[in-house]
Design brief:
629 residues, alpha+beta, Jelly Rolls, eight-stranded parallel β-sheet, seven-stranded antiparallel β-sheet, 35 strands, globular, binds alpha-L-arabinofuranose
Length: 629
């Protein structure tokens, strides 16, 4: 392997080269990154896959002791459904309530993870014309073991109007499969709405589950694309993500059915929270907006798609410009003031807006795109507008700052796509490869070989970073209890998580953003399974500079490689260098909750690092050498 590290042949890799794409798929947000523990907090859930609009709430008691239903008497205009509990039993009457009382419980998203000594913030809205004694408790999944509880009492009429109650619960024990119970032994009618339980300590205090947000932060993502994907579009337009319905107080958000992936979301993780997450991660937000079309084309064929015509797209265009004002406008602007009222008077740095997801072929896409482009540029000339069409369609009369590329393919094809951009025209807009993944048989639920193929693809993107500006894998998260898409980079349930091999693979690329790329070439006969890249990067903590050489061996042979580095101003220091290897005993190996680190990087010091080095590259491996300069 010859590495030419001379300054005259070096090139800067874009600052935002590697980021993440967050889609509300697989319960990535609702029941995942968003730390709300109650599923369907507002009793609004609806849609073809939801058995009732109180699902997954269940009843404690029988018909002779309690009748539970919903009506539309909530104090929230946008989400009018409230839970109505008519308690027929009473501890003082002839119809005695069972011990522990009657009521409802919520199992959360496949069990709530309640931890000993951790404090949980509870909020709920209540109304009743009767005297109330309602016990709110966190319990084991069968309700028998109490972890924490609080009783709300009120005299007759005290809750005649909707009243918001907030308090904290501190758990005495840990139980990863807990539930929230609301029980009473007093007859009367109680209405409840917007029942929420959240850990009081979330990532940066902004509502994100700490362990999962930390996994994202560890990738040092330079951009965050959100909210989808198909989720952004909806299978039907009425179920698309509409930013303005996801901002303001959580209780007032209507929520919506995520029909692309088959579940309800309360939209606690809304437009504001996505922008906040990007800020917390030090990443640039890339907002994907609905361009007036739905996903139906993917499901039912082109003839049945839903699409807003260019003649009638104006209100959606205005909605997007308003959304940018929400993110960037001063605190006195119409929408900036809404953001300021949510606790963020400073504008967010929103510099990228992606028009649609993957609808270039649709009848009105190009006409609609032009309307979005002109309106955004007129109001915010510096915003980078991303087209869903390929580079060949972009011209001065159909301009775009970036064009979006999605690549889903087998591992062998992904490996060969290391050269996908080698012959791309060097002028014109650059690509954002915002979704890429190995899919199919050898991808499993996240195999080593899939990660290696993706690594080879990324090596190709680094080499072509004069025509590729940004890249992110897809999907990012899966809640193991509701896997709608495989593979995904991070797997979790209510209390555990692990990174798939491709999550660990991404760590090999996190120093590349803004680094210096150096050309390299491999001379090897009769083995075409090896690709390599070389960069120099600076450790921001101690300011040390490293030459990082990455080697992807996609084949089953170990390779003895001589590395020869030329063109360095100063040589490689003999100590202070390290080697990191991602490999395993078999190419189809995966991580799991039982073996979360089966396929994970292992680092060791490199002795006698030098401009001329002989190294042994393991079969099916990704290796990096960080050589101290
Ligand atoms: O990443 C999963 C899906 O794949 C996305 O929602 C869509 O954009 C793509 O087809």
């Amino acid at each position: 392997l010859n590495v030419d590290a001379s300054p005259q042949n070096a090139r800067k890799i874009p600052d935002k080269m590697f980021g993440i794409f967050f889609e509300e798929i697989n319960h990535a947000g609702a029941g995942g990154l968003w730390a709300e523990l109650v599923s369907n907090r507002g009793f609004e859930a609806g849609g073809p896959n939801t058995p009732s609009n109180i699902d997954p709430w269940l009843i404690i008691g029988n018909e002779s002791s309690i009748i539970v239903g919903t009506d539309r008497t909530s104090c929230f205009e946008q989400n009018p459904v409230a839970l109505r509990m008519e308690v027929l039993c009473d501890s003082k009457g002839t119809n005695n309530c069972p011990s522990g009382g009657v009521g409802v419980y919520n199992p959360g998203y496949w069990g709530m993870n309640i931890e000993r000594r951790r404090v949980y913030k509870v909020g709920l809205h209540i109304r009743s014309s009767d005297a109330v004694s309602l016990t709110v408790s966190l319990t084991s999944s069968d309700g028998l073991q109490k972890l924490a509880s609080h009783t709300i009492t009120a005299s007759k009429k005290q809750f005649a109007k909707w009243t918001k109650i907030e308090f904290h619960l501190k758990s005495s024990q840990t139980n990863t499969n807990s539930r929230l119970q609301l029980t009473t032994s007093k007859s009367g009618v109680i209405w409840l709405d917007q029942v929420s339980v959240m850990p009081s300590d979330t990532y940066m205090g902004h509502g994100f589950r700490k362990d999962l947000a930390s996994m994202l932060a560890n990738l040092k993502p330079q951009f965050l694309k959100f909210p989808g994907g198909n989720y952004a579009m909806g299978n039907y337009l009425r179920n698309a993500f509409r930013w303005s319905e996801t901002v303001g107080p959580w209780e007032e958000r209507p929520g919506h059915f995520n029909d692309a992936w088959g579940y309800w979301t309360d939209d606690g993780l809304g437009f504001f929270e996505f922008l906040q997450l990007a800020e917390d991660l030090g990443a640039s937000p890339v907002w994907v907006v609905n361009d007036g079309s739905s996903n139906l084309h993917g499901l039912l064929g082109a003839s049945q798609n839903e699409e807003v015509s260019t003649a009638t797209i104006a209100s959606l265009v205005k909605d997007v410009v308003d959304g940018i004002e929400f993110a960037r406008g001063g605190p006195k602007t119409t929408w900036g003031s809404v953001r300021a009222a949510m606790g963020h008077p400073q504008p967010f740095n929103l510099d990228y807006v992606s028009i649609g997801n993957q609808e270039c072929w649709m009848l009105y896409y190009r006409g609609n795109y032009q309307k979005f482009y002109s309106a955004i540029k007129a109001a915010y000339p510096d915003i980078n507008v991303v087209s869903s069409c390929d580079k060949s369609t972009i011209s001065p009369s159909n301009p775009a700052d970036l064009y979006d590329v999605h690549v889903y393919t087998s591992s062998s094809d992904m490996f060969s796509r290391t050269s996908m951009f080698d012959n791309t025209t060097r002028s014109g807009p650059k690509a954002i490869v915002s979704e890429y993944a190995v899919t199919g048989k050898d991808a499993g639920k996240g195999t080593l070989v899939a990660a290696l193929a993706e690594a080879a693809f990324l090596v190709g993107l680094e080499r072509n970073s004069d025509v590729v500006e940004m890249a992110s894998c897809a999907p990012l998260f899966v809640n193991d209890n509701d896997r709608r898409w495989s593979p995904d980079a991070i797997v979790f349930n209510s209390w555990q998580n692990y990174g798939c091999p491709n999550y660990w693979m991404l760590h090999f690329f996190k120093d590349s953003c803004g680094a210096t790329f150096h050309p390299s070439n491999i001379q090897i006969s009769s083995y075409n399974q090896l690709v390599a890249s070389a960069i120099t990067w600076q450790n921001s903590k101690d300011k040390s500079t490293y030459l990082k050489i990455k080697l992807v061996n996609f084949g089953n042979q170990a390779v003895n490689l001589s590395i020869s580095v030329s063109g360095l101003d100063e040589g490689i220091k003999s100590s202070g260098s390290k080697k990191t290897v991602l490999t395993s005993s078999g190419p189809l190996d995966e991580n799991s909750f039982q073996q979360p680190q089966k396929v994970a990087p292992v680092s060791s010091p490199v002795d006698n690092a030098n401009e001329q080095m002989g190294v042994l590259v393991d079969p099916y491996s990704l290796t990096s050498f960080d050589l101290l300069l």
